[in-house]
Write a structure and sequence with these properties.
By secondary structure, the chain is α+β, with helices and mostly antiparallel strands. It has helices at residues 7-19, 114-127, 136-143, 145-152, 199-203, 209-217, 266-272, 290-307; strands at residues 33-42, 60-68, 85-94, 97-104, 166-167, 172-175, 181-190, 223-231, 251-262, 284-286. Bound molecules: protoporphyrin IX containing FE. Keywords: Heme, Iron, Metal-binding, Oxidoreductase, Peroxidase, Signal.
Length: 308
């Protein structure tokens, strides 16, 4: 007797339906990417909110993978289906230990639970063959105004992966050496500023314009970012990834990310690596956001397929 699949297994199945996967050795989503290496330099202010070792004084090696959304390995960098762009990071903590952050260029998620995400992706899939006057996805968006807001959220093309900001979306709990805790969300901002392309300008770009640009500018022109945490105030909803917190919330800088080079063994590294948003050091814990808690399970299903 076959056991019933879990919600995350069903989500990844539908992602395979949507993107004609799985593909040998490749991710089920955010398949097309570029892997870079550099250093993370912590800021003194990090200690205000966390005792995590990599956020104290010493710099650490970092690997960053920028990606296009969807499971299409050849999706053009200027194809709107590839937005949101992704930024996955791994900070080396020494002794074979690491911590990961997995961020999106859009500051919020379309739905608050894995069950609703499964429903949404299924509606997208079924709309392709639906004869109904109101397609399943139109019905889903009509019933779920937050998902509609996500779909309509402006997603301009960046001039470079180094001119885009990235958002953790899900909240984490940060605890400092005095035992004081706050909830916060990661925000990565480019030191060179956010630079977006006009629609007509985006359309004439090369299909690999983002992947190539970031590889070719290094090491002459390092790509630099500020890593910060937006701190929740009492009453802010910390377990709902559809809600953007007010802009006036305190921002605490955790440090600077400096990317120096394209990773030499990038294809092998990508294949063997599963970035895990719940790979956390002491001093940082997950919130109870059900989207956050579902992610490692979904990523593991995708990872399992790629290692088969
Ligand atoms: C329940 C919700 C979600 C599901 C089911 C899901 C599913 C997936 C899957 C299957 C992968 C491939 C992972 C791998 O093979 O290593 C992936 C990658 C990724 N996801 Fe998600 N995801 C979810 C939520 C999110 C959120 C909230 C964000 C952003 C904050 C995000 C950003 C990314 C990024 C950037 C990657 C590429 C990671 C890499 O470069 O290896 N995802 N996602």
């Amino acid at each position: 007797e076959e056991r019933e699949k879990s919600t995350v297994e069903k989500i990844v199945d539908v992602q395979h339906d949507l993107f004609k996967g799985p593909r040998e050795g490749l991710r089920s989503n955010h398949t097309k990417g570029v892997v870079l290496t550099g250093e993370f330099h912590p800021a003194d202010s990090a200690r205000q909110i966390t005792s995590a070792a990599h956020l104290q004084q010493q710099s650490s090696p970092i690997v960053v993978r920028f990606s296009n959304a969807t499971g299409f390995p050849d999706i053009a960098d200027n194809d709107p289906r590839g937005l949101a762009k992704g930024m996955a990071m791994r900070i080396d903590l020494g002794d074979e230990e690491y911590t990961d952050m997995v961020l999106s260029s859009v500051p919020r998620f379309p739905v608050a639970t894995p069950e609703a995400f499964l429903e949404m992706l299924t509606a997208v899939r079924d709309s392709a063959t639906s004869e109904a006057e109101t397609k399943p996805i139109q019905q889903f968006l009509a019933d779920n105004p937050k998902a509609k807001h996500f779909v309509e959220y402006p997603k301009p093309f960046p001039a470079s992966f180094a001119n885009l900001s990235y958002h953790g979306i899900n909240a984490f709990k940060f605890t400092n050496a005095d035992g004081e805790s706050v909830y916060g969300r990661y925000i990565v901002t480019p030191l060179d500023g956010v630079k977006t392309l006009e629609k007509a300008d985006a359309e004439i770009q090369n299909e690999n314009y983002l992947m190539n640009e970031i590889r070719e500018r290094l090491p002459q022109q390092p790509a630099e970012f500020r890593l910060a945490v937006q701190v929740a105030e009492p009453g802010d909803e910390v377990n709902d990834a559809t809600i953007i917190w007010p802009e006036d919330r305190q921002i605490v800088e955790l440090g600077r990310i400096v990317l120096y080079a394209a990773k030499a063994d990038a294809a092998e590294y990508e294949k063997a690596t599963m970035f895990n948003p719940l790979a956390l050091p002491e001093g940082i814990e997950p919130s109870a956001d059900p989207i956050l808690l579902a992610r490692p399970g979904a990523y593991a299903v995708s990872f399992q397929h790629r290692m088969d």
